[in-house]
Specification:
mainly alpha; 51% helix
Length: 70
């Protein structure tokens, strides 16, 4: 199976300072989204920028929303 976005994520090694900064920035963006939009567990979101890579720094919006929706 070919992973199209893998080349992009190879630029930010797992566990690196760069990944930690990336995750911190995306977490802030997610908190801002939640504070402005007030999503409920019944809501659905469309993440147009979703990636086909599965790791801690990919698809943060969807992953965090799943966590709060329980």
């Amino acid at each position: 199976m070919s992973v199209i976005d893998q080349e992009y994520y190879n630029e930010v090694p797992s566990g690196s300072l760069a990944e930690q900064l990336l995750l911190a920035a995306r977490d802030r963006i997610f908190r801002d989204f939640v504070s402005r939009m007030h999503p409920s567990p019944r809501d659905e979101i469309l993440d147009v920028g979703v990636s086909d890579v599965i790791n801690d720094s990919a698809n943060v919006l969807v992953a965090r929303f799943i966590q709060i929706a329980g």
